[in-house]
Amino acid sequence: METVGLRELRQNASDLVRRAEEGAEITITVAGRPGARLVPAAARTWRRWDDVADLFAGPADPAWEADRDEIPHDLRDPWAAG
């Protein structure tokens, strides 16, 4: 986590907000003491592969093929009348 002083916040507010939007967490200090944190308002929708790779590291679902066979395989036009 990065730390910046209040003066730097005033001088570089746009850049610091942009970096927070990208996921950075920045501590703002006042007289050398932590006073506030600048963090993203919401989590990013898209994640980098490195952030989610562990989700795919486990073994494959052994029931996948059986579950897939439960789905009807007939094709139809969902907008067709009837």
UniProtKB/TrEMBL annotation:
Lineage of the organism: Bacteria, Bacillati, Actinomycetota, Actinomycetes, Mycobacteriales
Listed Basic and acidic residues bias regions: 65-82
Name of this protein: Antitoxin
Role noted for this protein: Antitoxin component of a type II toxin-antitoxin (TA) system.
Family matches, as InterPro entries: Antitoxin_Phd/YefM, YefM-like_sf
Family, similarity comment: Belongs to the phD/YefM antitoxin family.
Species the sequence originates in: [Mycobacterium] wendilense
Region annotation Disordered: where it falls in the sequence: 59-82
